[in-house]
Amino acid sequence: MKKQLLLLIVILWSCTKVVKEDLKTIDFKILKITVPSNWERIDLKGIDSFVSGIKTGKGDTVVFDIGDYSYDLTNEPTIRDKKYKSYLDSLCFDTKRMIFSNNKELDKIQGIYFKEFFIFDTIDCYKARYAIPKVKGRGITGFYIDSLNSDSLKVSSYGYDLDPTEQEQLLKAFKTIKIKFCP
Fold first, then answer.
1. pLDDT digits over 100-156, tens only?
2. Same domain, 102 and 175
3. Which candidate, 135, 142, 116, 5, places its Cα nearest to that of 62?
4. What's this model's pTM, rounded to 2 decimal places?
């Protein structure tokens, strides 16, 4: 009996696979982030802010925007009153991609037409708003910090329609961010 138990433990032990992720740190001067080693930093151009990015292993782009007008991740859809639909149809407008509601104000407040959930957490020492797609692979994965130190300097990072595995890796990577201005 002891031999069988020992054999079973050895078999189970040998079947477990310990996977150590190969990671690297990318320095954006104001912040550092640890990502999978096959992700690469890319240079992007911004008009009124520092913009850079990361190319994931599957070729998706994650943007980092640091400045006074960084994207706050709210891709708010326009919701129209349902009564307006028949009028637009009579004018031969293509209304297939438009959103109509019986109670547009309530739907807007509840955010039911957003593709993302929004949650609050911290990144390093700052309060951040995260956007996480309601359906993996469809929507924005990112974060937004509305103010670094006492300045109006904002930070956002986001990718669109990321591969589900890379979406999870990115959310884990956000937790590794170290911001230069943290007290």
1. 888 878 877 777 778 889 999 999 988 999 999 999 989 999 999 988 766 678 899
2. no
3. 142
4. 0.75
How many angstroms separate the CA atoms of 142 and 33, rounded?
A: 13
C-alpha to C-alpha distance for 68 and 49, rounded to whole angstroms? 7
Token pair of 64, please?
Answer: 């980092």
What range defines the domain where residue 98 resides? 79-110
The enclosing domain of 154 has a CATH number of: 3.40.1000.10
**Greatest extent of the chain over all pairs of C-alpha atoms, in Å:** 82
In the three-class reduction of DSSP (H, G, I as helix; E, B as strand; rest coil), residue 172 is classed as helix
In a 3-state reduction of DSSP, which class is residue 33?
Answer: strand
> Do the domain assignments include residue 42?
yes
**What is 75-105 written as a DSSP string?**
-PPPEEETHHHHHHHHTT---TT-EEESSHH
